[in-house]
Amino acid sequence: MLTSLSRRSPTLVTTLRIGVLWMIGLGWVMAVYAETPVANRLAGTDFCIPDRYAVRLEIREQADDELYDTSPGFDLNAKIHYNEAAKHLDGYVRNVADDGLPQYQTLYLGLRPAPKTESVPSRSVEDPTSLTTLTNTKDLFITDKVPSYLVPTEVLKKTANDNYITWGTCSRTSHHNQPAVYACQRRNLIIDSVAVEYNIHQANLSRHEGIDEFIRQKFESWQCEQSTDG
Predict the structure, then answer these.
(1) pTM for the full model?
(2) Alpha carbons 47 and 14: distance in angstroms, whole number
(3) What is the dihedral of CA 25, 26, 32, 37, to 10 degrees?
(4) What one-character DSSP code corresponds to residue 23?
(5) If residue 82 lies in a helix (H) or strand (E), which one and from where to where?
(6) CA nearest 200: which of 187, 191, 213?
(7) Which of 21, 48, 112, 174 could in theory staple to 224 by disulfide, Cβ–Cβ 3.0 to 4.6 A?
(8) E strands along the chain, which residues?
(9) What is the tens place of the pLDDT at every residue in 28-49?
(10) What is the pLDDT of residues 4-22, one digit of tens each?
């Protein structure tokens, strides 16, 4: 058939051949795409981090170079710009001054597989009066009455039924002859199969529960089947 057509219309035959080759090429591309893993997917989970939030990590199998992250994880973290956090969290402090230099309070989320035991570690506190209420909070307590300069101190959270659970750590960034200022790390925020941790300055500690909820909502929008850029 192509032979007879080629005699009558060489241009038509060439167009048909190009069309066939294009269809074959398109089929190959679609097959390769179907087999390609979803970009920024947290391995073994249903979460896909949009590019604008994704932070890729340099990973090495060998642990002899401290410049690389060799801890168990997803090879992927996330960040939420301080302007977006302030837009959704009433009163969120965008930046704080440290020795006259601004420190912008972008939320950097460290991500790793959640422990198989889903419950947050609880702590037995025989004498609650031994705890010190953390500045700007009512439910967070420092276990060390006089935290050392820049040394992480365990922080407990008091639950509704008066139990205590491990919330994270705080380090005093001011000297003892100055008013106490803390930089903290939230830990044990479990979202489905992902454990999240993030740094939070004392200026935003009063909003710690709101920040947790904000991050949970972001993960809901990062479900792979509905992952959005917002």
Answers:
(1) 0.74
(2) 47
(3) 150
(4) H
(5) helix 82-88
(6) 187
(7) 48
(8) 54-56, 76-80, 95-98, 101-104, 107-113, 122-123, 132-133, 140-142, 153-158, 164-172, 182-191, 194-201
(9) 434 333 334 456 899 889 999 9
(10) 544 555 554 455 455 544 4
The Cα 26–Cα 57 span in angstroms is 33
Dmax (CA) for the chain in angstroms is 99
Report yes or no: 77 and 55 within 8 Å, Cβ to Cβ: yes
Residue corresponding to tokens 């909070």: 137
The alpha carbon dihedral of 209, 56, 184, 146 has a sign of positive
Which residues does 55 contact at the CB level (< 8 Å), separation at least 6? 76, 77, 78, 79, 108
Q: What is the pairing mode between strands 182-191 and 132-133? A: unpaired
Could you tell me how many residues make up the chain? 230
Please give, one letter per residue, the 3-state secondary structure of 156-167. Answer: EEECCCCCEEEE
Say how far apart CA 70 and CA 61 lie, in whole Å. Answer: 7
Counting Cα atoms < 13 Å in the Cβ hemisphere of 168 gives 24
- The angle subtended at Cα 71 by Cα 59 and Cα 122, nearest 5°, is 155
- Using only the alpha carbons of the chain, give its radius of gyration: 26
Residue 86 burial by CB count (10 A; 0-12/13-18/19+): exposed, middle or buried? Answer: middle
